[in-house]
């Protein structure tokens, strides 16, 4: 698992574990979860999406589940101040959730708003997919 925060990809597992343990800081309200490698271009696009949502880097954490993702129950215990979760791709099963969120449709679950999105790679390479994600999910909720 890797953590992306403030335009930095952290690959050191000890540092990551320390960061994940500290995720309950009051100023971080959005958790973004994805499960695909990020290119520099896609990473920049993700940062730009967060800026368009009027979020500063200190407002969110981005987590990459590589091989053994944590269950939502474990992760949520460390995320007491998170109000929104954005999932890029089909990650519900990886998080041990017994439900399937609808793409581009904010949904309340576990006292948080969940927004399921297409894969970041699909958003980057397809303007229609990017436009739909923005107009149907991010813009109505965050702006």
Q: Features of this protein?
A:
143 residues; seven-stranded mixed β-sheet; 35% helix; alpha/beta; globular; 7 strands
Describe the structure.
The protein is an alpha/beta fold. It has one domain: Uracil-DNA Glycosylase, subunit E (3-Layer(aba) Sandwich). Helices cover 35% and strands 22% of the residues. A seven-stranded mixed β-sheet has the order 2-1-4-3-5-7-6, with helices on both faces. β1 and β2 form a beta hairpin. The longest helix has 16 residues. The N terminus is likely disordered.
**N- and C-termini, Cα separation:** 30 Å
* Individual helix count: 5
CATH architecture: 3-Layer(aba) Sandwich
Shape label: globular
Q: Tell me the name of the CATH class.
A: Alpha Beta
CATH homology group: Uracil-DNA glycosylase-like domain
Range of helix content: 25-40%
Supply the number of structural domains: 1
How are the strands of the largest sheet arranged? 2-1-4-3-5-7-6
- Structure classification: alpha/beta
Q: What percentage of the residues does DSSP assign to strands (E)? A: 15-25%
Q: Segments where pLDDT lies below 50 for 5+ residues?
A: 1-25
Number of strands: 7
What integer is the average pLDDT? 81
Short précis:
This protein has 143 residues and is an alpha/beta fold. The protein has 5 helices and 7 strands; from the N terminus they run ββαβαβαβββαα.
Fold topology:
Blueprint: E1 2-5, E2 8-10, H1 13-21, E3 30-34, H2 40-52, E4 60-64, H3 72-77, E5 84-88, E6 107-109, E7 112-117, H4 120-125, H5 127-142
